[in-house]
Structure formats: C-alpha cells, structure tokens
C-alpha cells in the first residue's frame, strides 16, 4: 500500500503532456499502477491519472463499485489502462457535473461525448478495447485529458457552472450528492 501525494491545480506538472509507456510488464510499472489504485481508493475517487501523482507517463486507473462522491453512477470495472486512446462513436454530447481529486471540494458542468470507443494496454501489455457510454465514458475522457495536461475547467463552456460542492449543494444544484 502506498498512497502518494496528490498534485492539485496550480502545479505545473498537471499541465504537461505525459510520455507514452514503451516497456511493459515491469516492476516499476506494476508499482505505479498499485500506487494509483491505492491513492484513488484513499480519496474515494473513481479514476486517477499518473500525472496527478507527479509521474509523467500515460497511465490511468479507473474503477468503482459504488462511490459516495458519485452515488447514482453505475459500476465501472477496475481497470489500469496504459497509452489509452479514445474516439467518439457519434456526435452526442452530454453536459454534467464532474469533479477531480486535483480540485478538491469543487465541481463543474463539463461537456463530454456520450458514447466512446477506447483502447489501450494492461500492465502486461495485453490490449484492452471497450465501447462505453455515460458515466464510464465521462470518467475515461476526464482521465485521458490529464495525460494531455488538461483539467476539466479547461473543457467547460460556462464557468457559472463551476463552484464549491458545499455552495452548489446548498443551492440545490447537486441534488445527487450527499450533503
Ligand atoms: Ni481528475
């Protein structure tokens, strides 16, 4: 178990493009993935990208059985994905609330593709491919953005939909979140 320090918005490392992984099935890569899962679990997140713990590699983890941070979201299989790529299946876009462990206590309404196809590799170098929609698709797009140095506020169309969870809850805007 190794929970790593989580970088927050303002740290320049979060705005850099991460490098592709070129060697698979190694001890350091396994350790990185374990640290990502441990850090994500400790914070109750549903996804985490390596740059958020200061590692500039194209590695993300995601997974959720149920999360207090997202009480109405369906489960996402526990997955480590290396060098991920995604494409939208059609033009449908949904705007919905999103959060990020690098912006603790905040939420914003972010437009994302509703349906995507994504692919990448597991730690063992085996190819992973999926077609997903809704929350799973949103999490994947959010984590892939981290690998290109993009945080969710940079995707927002209207910053009036950005704020502190506590205020948004008091205003009745985050009805699905526990107060
Ligand atoms: Ni994030």
How is the topology of this model organized?
Elements: H1 27-43, E1 47-49, E2 59-64, E3 76-88, E4 93-98, E5 106-113, E6 115-121, E7 127-133, H2 134-147, E8 162-164, H3 165-170
Antiparallel strand pairs: 1-2, 2-3, 3-6, 4-5, 5-8, 6-7
The structure holds nickel (II) ion.
Describe the structure.
By secondary structure, the chain is of the alpha+beta class. It has a single domain (12-176), classed as Peptide Deformylase (Alpha-Beta Complex), CATH 3.90.45. Helices cover 21% and strands 30% of the residues. The protein contains three helices and eight strands, in the order αβββββββαβα. It has helices at residues 27-43, 134-147, 165-170, and strands at 47-49, 59-64, 76-88, 93-98, 106-113, 115-121, 127-133, 162-164. The strands form two sheets. A five-stranded antiparallel beta sheet has the order 1-2-3-6-7, sandwiched between helices. A three-stranded antiparallel beta sheet has the order 4-5-8. The longest helix is centred in the first third of the chain and has 17 residues, at 27-43. The model has no long low-confidence stretch (mean pLDDT 93). The site of nickel (II) ion has 5 residues, from helix 2. Nickel (II) ion binds next to helix 2.
Q: Tell me the number of strands.
A: 8
> Biggest sheet, in brief?
5 strands, antiparallel
What is the CATH homologous superfamily assignment? Peptide deformylase
From the helix content, strand content and strand pairing, which structural class follows?
alpha+beta
What ions, cofactors and ligands are bound?
nickel (II) ion
Shape: globular
Order of helices and strands: HEEEEEEEHEH
- Spatial strand order of the main sheet: 1-2-3-6-7
Mean pLDDT: 93
């Amino acid at each position: 178990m190794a929970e790593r320090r989580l970088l927050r918005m303002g740290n320049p490392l979060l705005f850099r493009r991460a490098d592709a992984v070129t060697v698979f099935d190694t001890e350091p890569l396994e350790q990185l993935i374990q640290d990502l899962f441990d850090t994500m679990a400790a914070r109750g997140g549903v996804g985490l990208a390596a740059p958020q713990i200061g590692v500039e590699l194209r590695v993300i983890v995601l997974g959720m059985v149920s999360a207090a941070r997202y009480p109405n979201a369906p489960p996402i299989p526990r997955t480590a994905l290396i060098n991920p790529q995604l494409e939208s299946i059609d033009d449908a876009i949904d705007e919905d609330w999103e959060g990020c462990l690098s912006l603790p206590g905040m939420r914003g309404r972010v437009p994302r593709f509703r349906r995507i196809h994504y692919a990448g590799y597991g730690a063992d170098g085996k190819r992973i491919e999926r077609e997903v929609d809704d929350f799973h698709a949103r999490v994947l797009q959010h984590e892939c953005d981290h690998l290109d140095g993009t945080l969710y506020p940079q995707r927002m169309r209207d910053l009036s939909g950005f704020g502190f969870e506590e205020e948004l809850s008091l205003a009745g805007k985050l009805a699905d979140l526990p107060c």
